[in-house]
Amino acid sequence: MSRVFKSPARYVQGRGVTAELGAHAETLGDSALLLADGVVLGLVEDEVTTSLEAQGVEVSTVTFGGECSTAEIDRVAGIAEERGVDIVVAAGGGKALDAAKAVRAERGGAMVSMPTIASTDAPTSALSVVYSEHGEFEEYLFHDDHPDLVLVDTAVVAAAPTRLFRGGVADALATWFEAAATSNSDGDNVVGGKPTRAGTHLAKLCYETLREHAVSAVEAVERDAVTESVEAVTEANTLLSGLGFESGGLAAAHSIHNGLTQLEATHGATHGEKVNVGTISQLVLEGRDDAFVEEIIEFSLDVGLPVTLAEVGLDDPTREQLDVVAEAACADEETIHNEPFAVEPAMVRDAILTADGLGERVRAER
Ligand SMILES: [Zn+2]
After folding, report:
1. CA dist., res. 95 & res. 285, Å (int)
2. Between 182 and which of 49, 134, 158, 338 could a Cys-Cys bridge form, CB atoms 3.0 to 4.6 Å apart?
3. How far is the CA of 273 from the centre of ligand 1 (A)?
4. Rounded to the nearest whole angstrom, what is the distance from the C-alpha of residue 26 to the centroid of ligand 1?
C-alpha cells in the first residue's frame, strides 16, 4: 500500500487573527454559514461577520446544538441547503467543527475551521467523530476533503478554560505514541495509506514541543496570557497533533478512549482527559519500562491531567465494567490493532487496571 499524507490547505495562528478571517477566506465563496454554540457566538460572531463582510462575503449564523450527532448534522445541512451557502465556518470545540465537516461533505463547497479552544486535534482533520445524542461514541466519518482554512486565534484560546487547554495537551501527548506504534507495525494511518516520514515525524515534534513548553503554557493560559509557549503548545495541540494523528496513525490510546465512552460515568471527563488514561494504559500494554511510564505520569501531573480512572469518573470500576471498555476498544475497526502485536480484550483490561494503580502510586509519592 502506498504512503499518504494529507492536510488542510492553509493554517493561520496568532493573537487576534480572527480579524484576518475575511482576507484568508474571500477566495472560498460568496456566502458563509457560521456554526457555533451560543457561548461561542457571543465571543466571535461580531468579528467573524465584520471580517467576512469587509471582503464581500455574506454571513448568516446557526446555533450549534452541542452534539456531533447524525440528527444535528442533518439539521445543519438542511439549513445550509436552504440558505444556499458555499462556505461553512465552524467556531468552537471539536464537536462543532466535526459537525461542520460532515455538513460540507454532504453538500460540497468550502469549510473553515476556527477552534476557540486548543482542546483536541479535530480542527485540522478530515474526520468527524459521530456520537449518539446521549454522548456515546458511534463512528468515525472519513471525508475526502480537509478544511480549506484552519484559523486559530491564540488570544481566544488563552482566554478559554484552562481545563480544555490541558485536555488538548493530553490529546496531543498521545499522538507520538500512537504514530510510533503505527510506524512500528507498518499499520495504516487515518488518511488511507501507510505513514510518510513527514506524518510520523510531525507526531514526534508534537511530543517534543509539549515536553518543552506545556507546563509554562498551562501557567500562562491560567492567567489568560499569550506567550511564546502558548503559541508553541497551541500549534502542538492543533496542527502537529492533527497532522500527526491523521497522517501518522492512531493506536491503543484512542481506542481505549472510545471504550471508556461506553461507560456513562466518564461522560463528564473531556476527550483529552479520557485519552490520557488511554495513553498511560497504552504504555503499560506495550510493556514500556518503569522509568518511562513514571516519567509520563509525572509529566501528566505537572500539566494537571488525570492519571487514574477515578479522575475520569470511574471510582472503583468493576471488572465487568472494564471488560466492556476493553471489548469496545478491541472492536475490529479500532485503531488498537495498529499496535505491533496482537491485542486481546483481557490484555487491555489489565493494562488499564495497572495504569490506574501506577497513576495512584506516582501521585502518592509526590
Ligand atoms: Zn483525540
Report:
1. 29
2. 338
3. 10
4. 30
Q: How far is the CA of 77 from the centre of ligand 1 (A)?
A: 25
- Helix (H/G/I), strand (E/B), else coil: 55: coil
Residue 117 is assigned to a ligand binding site:
yes
- Say if residues 48 and 22 touch (Cβ distance below 8 Å): no
Q: Which of 351, 331, 343 is nearest to 137 (CA)?
A: 331
Judge contact between 69 and 134, C-beta under 8 A. Answer: no
Domains along the chain with CATH numbers: 11-159 (3.40.50.1970), 162-365 (1.20.1090.10)
Q: How far apart are CA 50 and CA 56, in angstroms?
A: 10
Instruction: Return the SS3 of 128.
Output: strand
CA 58 to ligand 1 centroid distance, Å: 33
- Residue 198 in grid coordinates: 513527514
pTM score: 0.94
CA of 276 to the centre of ligand 1 (A): 10
Distances (CA, A) of 200 to 72, 209, 241: 34, 15, 11
Map grid coordinates 461522560 to a residue: 267
What residue spans of 186-269 are helical by DSSP H? Answer: 197-222, 228-235, 241-248, 252-260
118 is in an annotated binding site: yes
Tell which residue, 57, 56, 165, 51, has the closest CA to residue 115.
165
Is there a binding annotation on residue 271? yes
Q: Measuring CA to CA, which residue among 118, 153, 303, 154 is closest to residue 226?
A: 154
Residue 121 assigned as binding residue: yes
Picking from 87, 79, 83, 95, the residue whose alpha carbon sits closest to that of residue 48 is: 87
Residues at Cβ < 5 Å from ligand 1 ion: 171
Within 10 angstroms of residue 321's Cβ, the number of other Cβ atoms is: 17
Alpha-carbon distance 177 to 179, whole Å? Answer: 6
Residue 86 counted as an annotated binding residue: no
Average pLDDT per 10 consecutive residues for the chain, totaling 366 residues = 95 98 96 97 97 98 97 97 97 96 97 94 93 87 96 97 96 98 97 96 98 98 98 98 97 97 93 97 98 98 98 95 98 97 98 98 96
Tell me which residues are annotated as active site: 171, 254, 257, 271
